[in-house]
């Protein structure tokens, strides 16, 4: 196929990255109709709190973490798409406090639309990330689909005592975010041909950085809860943490880390449709201060593909958490708020 006739990957999908997620409100309605058939005492983490992965106890020393994540292209470079999707999938393992051990590839491709070497580059990108994580892609499943889809079913291990759920934050906990925000804004700019080389490099650096610190954070007694910020935006995932703990999550707008350039783009109206869908789903549980305008709201609800870990820890553990992030090269990690006694809502001041 001539190069000039190969379609842009992002042109083949109606949404990209974690912006493809079903809106939180719709997902909650669907899951409400799901009734587990039986209970199992070894299932330590299931669907109860919309956590990042399922966890099953194998023995007194080991629990299996299982998760799956896949989406349509957020970028046009096939190798980069594979890297981003694989990094995002493995993040759920780290968010539970564990380490990945293997993965299976999930592949859906329009075989008669994309050249086979382009599809091979997507697979190679995913394999490169798994290699960096020290695991193998041991198999998978593929289908011929209308839109290109790639991701992983990933498995990991964690000591049962080190599992970090998203629902176990405590009043007084400090909230720390590992990566800067704004991936969805940059993806919208890319689709509109408004993203320069520096912006693309910044987006790629954020989305392909493995959340390895999660495994070390899981072993810290002072760390009470972890989740990763993905398709529901910072507000959506902070709200899941607040609801799980029955507490108020208080965020400070001035302390949030941003990828360079995203605030200006948001002010110009370069946002994703998923941001509006997110707000429509959970906006009634958000309390915004007077400094939060339309652009800031779009940033706070911006879907993050392969976003950072959101950590709730005791104040005395905050310095150690920040040291672990720093040692892993997460220079933008920041203390962004705290958990407080109150209604299960998110406040932004």
Automatic annotation (TrEMBL):
Signal peptide: none
Chain ranges of the PurM-like C-terminal domain: 170-342
Binding site for Mg(2+): 52, 92, 228
Every PurM-like N-terminal domain range: 51-158
EC annotation from Swiss-Prot or TrEMBL: 2.7.9.3
Keyword tags: ATP-binding, Kinase, Magnesium, Metal-binding, Nucleotide-binding, Selenium, Transferase
Binding residues annotated for ATP, in chain numbering: 21, 49-51, 69, 92, 140-142
Catalysed conversion reaction: hydrogenselenide + ATP + H2O = selenophosphate + AMP + phosphate + 2 H(+)
GO biological process terms held by the UniProt record: selenocysteine biosynthetic process
Record-annotated site: Important for catalytic activity: 21
Stored Pfam families: AIRS, AIRS_C
Co-factor binding comment: Binds 1 Mg(2+) ion per monomer.
Domain of life the protein comes from: Bacteria
NCBIfam families in the cross-refs: PRK00943.1, selD
Purpose of the protein: Synthesizes selenophosphate from selenide and ATP.
Stated family: Belongs to the selenophosphate synthase 1 family. Class I subfamily.
UniProt protein name: Selenide, water dikinase
């Amino acid at each position: 196929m001539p190069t000039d006739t190969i379609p842009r990957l992002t042109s083949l999908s109606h949404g990209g990255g974690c912006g493809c997620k079903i809106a939180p409100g719709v997902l909650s309605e669907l899951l409400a109709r799901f009734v587990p058939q039986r209970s199992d005492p070894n299932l330590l983490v299931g669907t109860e709190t919309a956590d990042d992965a399922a966890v099953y106890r194998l023995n007194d020393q080991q629990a299996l973490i299982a998760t799956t994540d896949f989406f349509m292209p957020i970028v046009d470079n096939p190798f980069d798409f594979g890297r981003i999707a694989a990094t995002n999938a493995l993040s759920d393992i780290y968010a539970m406090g564990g380490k990945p051990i293997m993965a299976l590839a999930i592949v859906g491709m329009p075989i008669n639309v994309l050249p086979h070497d382009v599809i091979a580059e997507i697979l190679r990108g995913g394999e490169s990330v798994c290699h960096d994580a020290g695991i193998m892609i041991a198999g998978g499943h593929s289908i011929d689909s209308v839109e290109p889809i790639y991701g992983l079913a990933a498995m990991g291990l964690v000591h049962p005592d080190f599992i970090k759920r998203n629902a176990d934050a405590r009043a007084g906990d400090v909230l720390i975010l590992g990566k800067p925000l704004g991936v969805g804004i940059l993806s919208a700019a890319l689709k509109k041909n408004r993203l320069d080389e520096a912006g693309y490099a910044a987006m790629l650096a954020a989305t392909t950085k493995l959340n390895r610190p999660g495994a070390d954070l899981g072993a810290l007694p002072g760390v009470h809860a972890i989740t990763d910020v993905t398709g529901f935006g910072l507000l959506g995932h902070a709200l899941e943490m607040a609801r799980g703990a029955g507490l108020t999550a208080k965020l400070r707008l001035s302390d949030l880390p941003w990828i360079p350039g995203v605030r200006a783009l948001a002010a110009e109206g370069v946002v994703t449709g998923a941001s509006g869908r997110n707000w429509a789903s959970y906006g009634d549980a958000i309390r915004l201060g007077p400094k939060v305008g339309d652009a800031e709201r779009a940033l706070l609800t911006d879907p993050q593909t392969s976003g950072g870990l959101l950590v709730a820890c005791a104040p005395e553990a905050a310095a150690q958490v920040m040291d672990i992030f720093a040692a892993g090269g997460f220079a933008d990690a920041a203390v962004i708020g705290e958990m407080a006694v109150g209604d299960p809502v998110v406040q932004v001041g």
